[in-house]
Specification:
The structure is a single chain. By secondary structure, the chain is mainly beta. The chain is built from 2 helices and 8 strands; from the N terminus they run ββββββββαα. Strands 2-8-7-4-5 form a 5-stranded mixed sheet, with no helix packed on it. A 3-stranded antiparallel sheet has the order 1-3-6, with no helix packed on it.
Protein backbone atom coordinates (compact mmCIF):
# COMPACT_ATOMS: atom_id res chain seq x y z
CA UNK A 1 0.00 0.00 0.00
CA UNK A 2 1.37 3.41 -1.00
CA UNK A 3 -0.51 5.44 1.61
CA UNK A 4 -2.57 8.59 1.23
CA UNK A 5 -4.64 8.60 -1.95
CA UNK A 6 -3.58 6.40 -4.85
CA UNK A 7 -5.67 4.69 -7.50
CA UNK A 8 -4.35 2.69 -10.43
CA UNK A 9 -5.44 0.96 -13.62
CA UNK A 10 -4.00 -2.56 -13.48
CA UNK A 11 -5.62 -4.32 -16.46
CA UNK A 12 -7.05 -3.43 -19.88
CA UNK A 13 -8.19 -6.16 -22.25
CA UNK A 14 -10.49 -6.04 -25.30
CA UNK A 15 -12.53 -9.20 -25.88
CA UNK A 16 -11.69 -9.10 -29.60
CA UNK A 17 -8.71 -7.86 -31.56
CA UNK A 18 -10.28 -8.04 -35.02
CA UNK A 19 -13.63 -6.32 -35.52
CA UNK A 20 -15.89 -5.39 -38.38
CA UNK A 21 -18.65 -2.98 -37.48
CA UNK A 22 -19.64 -4.68 -34.26
CA UNK A 23 -19.43 -4.10 -30.52
CA UNK A 24 -16.40 -4.99 -28.44
CA UNK A 25 -16.23 -5.40 -24.68
CA UNK A 26 -13.17 -3.91 -23.00
CA UNK A 27 -12.43 -5.25 -19.54
CA UNK A 28 -10.64 -2.89 -17.14
CA UNK A 29 -9.47 -3.48 -13.57
CA UNK A 30 -8.81 -0.57 -11.21
CA UNK A 31 -7.20 -0.76 -7.80
CA UNK A 32 -7.18 1.45 -4.72
CA UNK A 33 -3.60 1.49 -3.36
CA UNK A 34 -4.39 4.25 -0.88
CA UNK A 35 -5.53 4.39 2.74
CA UNK A 36 -9.04 5.74 2.11
CA UNK A 37 -12.10 4.74 0.06
CA UNK A 38 -12.10 6.46 -3.30
CA UNK A 39 -14.69 7.58 -5.85
CA UNK A 40 -13.37 8.39 -9.30
CA UNK A 41 -14.05 8.23 -13.04
CA UNK A 42 -12.42 5.80 -15.46
CA UNK A 43 -12.35 6.57 -19.18
CA UNK A 44 -11.45 4.15 -21.96
CA UNK A 45 -10.05 5.42 -25.26
CA UNK A 46 -9.16 4.13 -28.71
CA UNK A 47 -6.14 6.19 -29.65
CA UNK A 48 -7.17 9.69 -28.43
CA UNK A 49 -10.91 9.10 -28.92
CA UNK A 50 -13.11 8.54 -25.89
CA UNK A 51 -15.17 5.36 -25.85
CA UNK A 52 -16.93 5.62 -22.51
CA UNK A 53 -16.54 6.89 -18.93
CA UNK A 54 -17.75 5.04 -15.84
CA UNK A 55 -17.70 6.08 -12.18
CA UNK A 56 -16.22 3.86 -9.48
CA UNK A 57 -17.89 4.62 -6.15
CA UNK A 58 -16.34 4.11 -2.70
CA UNK A 59 -13.65 1.62 -3.73
CA UNK A 60 -12.20 0.40 -0.42
CA UNK A 61 -8.46 0.53 0.29
CA UNK A 62 -6.46 -2.45 -1.05
CA UNK A 63 -9.31 -3.59 -3.26
CA UNK A 64 -9.96 -3.97 -6.99
CA UNK A 65 -12.97 -3.42 -9.16
CA UNK A 66 -13.60 -4.85 -12.60
CA UNK A 67 -15.37 -2.69 -15.16
CA UNK A 68 -16.69 -3.60 -18.60
CA UNK A 69 -16.89 -0.94 -21.30
CA UNK A 70 -18.77 -1.43 -24.58
CA UNK A 71 -17.41 0.04 -27.80
CA UNK A 72 -19.57 0.16 -30.92
CA UNK A 73 -17.04 0.11 -33.77
CA UNK A 74 -19.67 0.67 -36.48
CA UNK A 75 -18.82 4.36 -37.11
CA UNK A 76 -15.06 3.78 -36.78
CA UNK A 77 -12.99 3.80 -39.99
CA UNK A 78 -10.92 0.75 -40.84
CA UNK A 79 -7.52 0.78 -39.14
CA UNK A 80 -5.48 -0.20 -36.09
CA UNK A 81 -6.39 1.34 -32.75
CA UNK A 82 -4.60 1.31 -29.40
CA UNK A 83 -6.77 0.80 -26.34
CA UNK A 84 -6.08 2.59 -23.07
CA UNK A 85 -7.80 3.22 -19.75
CA UNK A 86 -7.37 6.28 -17.56
CA UNK A 87 -8.43 6.65 -13.93
CA UNK A 88 -8.98 10.35 -13.32
CA UNK A 89 -6.85 11.47 -10.34
CA UNK A 90 -8.51 11.98 -6.98
CA UNK A 91 -7.93 14.85 -4.55
CA UNK A 92 -4.55 14.51 -2.86
CA UNK A 93 -3.23 11.86 -5.22
CA UNK A 94 0.49 12.28 -5.83
CA UNK A 95 1.45 9.11 -7.71
CA UNK A 96 -0.52 9.45 -10.97
CA UNK A 97 1.78 7.52 -13.31
CA UNK A 98 -0.23 4.35 -12.63
CA UNK A 99 -3.55 6.00 -13.52
CA UNK A 100 -3.03 5.32 -17.25
CA UNK A 101 -2.60 1.88 -18.79
CA UNK A 102 -2.09 1.43 -22.52
CA UNK A 103 -2.62 -2.23 -23.24
CA UNK A 104 -4.39 -3.80 -26.15
CA UNK A 105 -5.25 -3.01 -29.72
CA UNK A 106 -8.13 -3.54 -32.07
CA UNK A 107 -8.10 -3.71 -35.84
CA UNK A 108 -11.27 -2.59 -37.58
CA UNK A 109 -11.45 -4.37 -40.94
CA UNK A 110 -13.91 -5.63 -43.55
CA UNK A 111 -16.72 -7.99 -42.56
CA UNK A 112 -15.62 -11.62 -42.64
CA UNK A 113 -11.90 -10.88 -42.24
CA UNK A 114 -11.06 -12.97 -39.16
CA UNK A 115 -7.27 -12.73 -39.55
CA UNK A 116 -7.15 -8.97 -40.03
CA UNK A 117 -5.08 -9.18 -43.20
CA UNK A 118 -7.60 -7.29 -45.34
CA UNK A 119 -8.55 -10.38 -47.37
CA UNK A 120 -11.30 -12.92 -46.95
CA UNK A 121 -9.87 -16.27 -47.90
CA UNK A 122 -9.37 -19.85 -46.75
CA UNK A 123 -7.42 -18.68 -43.67
CA UNK A 124 -10.52 -16.92 -42.38
CA UNK A 125 -12.71 -19.98 -43.06
CA UNK A 126 -10.09 -22.17 -41.34
CA UNK A 127 -10.06 -20.08 -38.15
CA UNK A 128 -13.84 -20.20 -37.94
CA UNK A 129 -13.80 -23.96 -38.62
CA UNK A 130 -11.22 -24.57 -35.85
CA UNK A 131 -13.38 -22.67 -33.36
CA UNK A 132 -16.64 -24.16 -34.69
CA UNK A 133 -19.09 -25.03 -31.92
CA UNK A 134 -17.14 -23.16 -29.24
CA UNK A 135 -18.39 -20.64 -26.69
CA UNK A 136 -16.43 -18.16 -24.52
CA UNK A 137 -15.67 -20.72 -21.79
CA UNK A 138 -14.31 -23.36 -24.24
CA UNK A 139 -10.60 -23.90 -24.92
CA UNK A 140 -11.09 -23.58 -28.71
CA UNK A 141 -12.92 -20.25 -28.32
CA UNK A 142 -11.64 -17.53 -30.64
CA UNK A 143 -13.64 -14.31 -30.19
CA UNK A 144 -12.47 -13.06 -33.58
CA UNK A 145 -14.12 -16.10 -35.23
CA UNK A 146 -17.47 -15.12 -33.70
CA UNK A 147 -18.07 -12.53 -36.40
CA UNK A 148 -21.75 -11.97 -35.57
CA UNK A 149 -20.98 -11.51 -31.84
CA UNK A 150 -23.52 -14.02 -30.48
CA UNK A 151 -21.08 -15.90 -28.20
CA UNK A 152 -21.04 -19.08 -30.27
CA UNK A 153 -19.03 -19.92 -33.36
CA UNK A 154 -21.46 -21.71 -35.66
CA UNK A 155 -22.77 -21.93 -39.21
CA UNK A 156 -23.81 -18.28 -39.12
CA UNK A 157 -20.17 -17.28 -38.71
CA UNK A 158 -18.97 -19.64 -41.45
CA UNK A 159 -21.67 -18.39 -43.82
CA UNK A 160 -20.81 -14.79 -42.88
CA UNK A 161 -17.25 -15.40 -44.03
CA UNK A 162 -18.30 -17.46 -47.06
CA UNK A 163 -20.64 -14.74 -48.41
CA UNK A 164 -17.69 -12.35 -48.65
CA UNK A 165 -15.11 -14.96 -49.70
CA UNK A 166 -12.62 -13.44 -52.13
CA UNK A 167 -13.22 -9.81 -51.04
CA UNK A 168 -10.15 -7.65 -50.55
CA UNK A 169 -10.03 -4.41 -48.61
CA UNK A 170 -9.70 -1.65 -51.20
Amino acid sequence: MIGGNDIAVTHVHPTKTITNDTTVQIDVTVQNNGNYSATFDVTVYYDENEIETQTVTDLAPESNQNLTFTWDTTPVPKGNYTIKAYAHPIVGEVLVENNLLIDGWIKETIFGDVTGDGKINILDISLVAIAFGSRPQDTRWDPNADINNDDIVNILDISGVAVYFGEVDP
